Amino acid sequence: xxxxxxxxxxxxxxxxxxxxxxxxxxxxxxxxxxxxxxxxxxxxxxxxxxxxxxxxxxxxxxxxxxxxxxxxxxxxxxxxxxxxxxxxxxxxxxxxxxxxxxxxxxxxxxxxxxxxxxxxxxxxxxxxxxxxxxxxxxxxxxxxxxxxxxxxxxxxxxxxxxxxxxxxxxxxxxxxxxxxxxxxxxxxxxxxxxxxxxxxxxxxxxxxxxxxxxxxxxxxxxxxxxxxxxxxxxxxxxxxxxxxxxxxxxxxxxxxxxxxxxxxxxxxxxxxxxxxx
Length: 277
Ligand SMILES: Nc1nc(=O)c2c([nH]1)NC[C@@H]1CN(c3ccc(C(=O)N[C@@H](CCC(=O)O)C(=O)O)cc3)CN21
Ligand SMILES: CC(C)C(=O)C(=O)O
Ligand SMILES: [Mg+2]
Known about the structure:
Homodecamer; pentamer of dimers. By secondary structure, the chain is an alpha/beta fold. The chain has helices at 4-12, 25-34, 45-48, 60-73, 92-106, 120-128, 144-147, 157-172, 185-194, 215-218, 236-252, 267-270; strands at residues 17-21, 38-41, 78-82, 110-114, 133-138, 177-181, 199-202, 210-213. Helix 2 packs across helix 4. Residues 21, 40, 42-44, 82, 136, 179, 181, 202, 212, 214 line the site of 3-methyl-2-oxobutanoic acid.
């Protein structure tokens, strides 16, 4: 099992970190088998597996439920779990109580929280309590209604300076890694070189220390529109559609099940049922 120290070493040695989200037993099992370095149980599960139109409705219970399933599928992969909307913003005390449940009940290696300077106290409190924290800046989807949409961040010099300040403050507060979401490549590269903890990019270009993608995006599974930063490595939409529609047709045509899908019994044993001798 990796620890956050392994990821620091990977940054130092310029070995890239491959992270993917997973939300359940099969996605976790397949991710572990493929050799991903780090799994994220993202609150994006609200959108890709629960069908909400943002991550805002996702609850602590949802994250615990899915986190436990992921753990069963990937017991040997470093797993980070998102703290969902408003579970780390009200007070340090409630943040610690929520984190206690999420961390203890799932057995994750770290928790992730969105935000900059305004969450540095939470990062310190969680770290002091023994919970490693991954920070997340740039496009922070839980604030979509404040940002006014899912937009690339850090495009003005003021905004870029703020992101650099935030990255440094989050490192200083004790974060073990930093997710950079939807920021220009040059800014992500600058941030990556200015901090010692690994940066994990999503829509942040190739100079980050690692990359993360949403499982359902990279497999094109149940998602229709892909953001520019996504590369589709598979097409489960088409594959699944073909399989399911063929199944429906074969049932209707009486082509399924065939002999090889069917159980048999000795005629002898059925005799009594026919009312015979
Ligand atoms: N399926 C999925 N993949 C994700 O990566 C993801 C989610 N859901 N849900 C939570 C957040 C939301 N994310 C998003 C959602 C949309 C864009 C998007 O449409 N971006 C525009 C860029 C717009 C601009 O240029 O400012 C794009 O066209 O790529 C980006 C990130 C990333 N996260
Ligand atoms: C996009 C990643 C970084 C995330 O936070 C999520 O999947 O919820
Ligand atoms: Mg998230």
